[in-house]
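User: For a teaching handout, I'd like to show students what a predicted protein-ligand complex looks like in token form. I'll give you the sequence and the SMILES for zinc ion. Please answer with just the structure.
Assistant: Understood, here is the input followed by the structure.
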Amino acid sequence: MITNKQSNFILKGQIIYSKPDWSVSYNENAYIVCEEGKVEGVYENLPDAFKAYPIIDCKEQLIIPGMSDLHVHAPQYPFRGLGMDLELLEWLNNHTFPEEAKYQDITYAHKAYSIFVDDLLYSTTTRACIFATIHPEATLDLMSQLEASGLYTYVGKVNMDRNGSPRLQEESAAASYKATREWIISANKSFKHTLPMLTPRFIPTCSDELMNKLHTLQTEFNLPLQSHLSENLSEINWVKQLVPTSKFYGDAYHQFGLFGGEVPTVMAHCIYSPEEEIKLMKQNNVYIAHCPESNTNLSSGIAPIRKYMEEGLNIGLGSDVAAGTGLSLLKSMAMAIQVSKLYYCLVDQDKKPLTTEEVFYLATLGGGSFFGKVGSFMPGYAFDVVVIDDSAIKAPRSLSLKERLERILYYSDQVQITEKYVDGQKLKIASK
Ligand SMILES: [Zn+2]
């Protein structure tokens, strides 16, 4: 919920943000000026020009950019923390599809989505790319709750016309196209900062005919797209069988014109991407949503993020609930570091582990850039801000801002989020 219509104001406190060159700027007792929803600048001493603006003093609290969750499944939130005993394909059949089938019932969907939206609101996330289910009515309900929250999101009604379950599959490619087209028109009419995104679940659940129809929708409405890529070895083999003409998994999307380029695209996971796939992702500006907790929980593997960074690919983080257990991107940042250490030890000692500052970049500016000038406090960026009280993490000495940034990743359950802004609008968050 949005509570503050004031467009020009200042926050004072301990300001940390990433810059496009991956360096991190630490600013003690500094001021960040918001003008018309954008960052005007960060100052150690407040210039006279802004002296008339109201100042909100956040004192010792950390002021950081809002984070972007590039991959999360809202309908899976009810079974988070359950069913981690299986790998991807069995997990989908045994846990995910039966739960998602329940969203046919709008009463259940509304209740489940309200829990999800409340928790997303009380997190460091300000923007997200969200999967819903195949059900248009429930998806519009989710979008309407997200719109009221003030968060900025892309949401996808999921497409699947094969290899689902008897209760979770669209009747045909034509039926999926029709329902999706009507949903897009309705969403475009109803919402300002909750936008539709094309969401073929993944190649195994979408026939060639459906993929062609999604390309038609993409052209008609100029929508971005999200899906899954190269997550699990059994899945990759299956894709090869289903689309025998594809040279690699990403090519199975590319053949239908649905792999970046003109279409802003997020692909989750990319654990086993071969060189050709990496090349095509780079060429087509495809965003990688790195989901380290999910990849660990489903025994999927470790994505070679250091390699992707060296290649200059676009990378952000995803919580990937419910294969990830929660919505905290602070926790995802810690896990991104941890799995990169395992990759370094066990797979490739040329690929150094990720640092705190690098994962901070991924969570803020890396993922944020999918939404435009988002995820930094450089002038002209969206004023997406999270204020964090970390005073419950006790220390016998004073810590530098760099040390405090590192600590909040590992003790994310001890921090309080006290203020949150999207495009300069203050959101009403309920503290937990
Ligand atoms: Zn996923």
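For the handout, you might add this sentence: Residues 71, 73, 228, 268, 320 surround zinc ion (CB under 6 Å).
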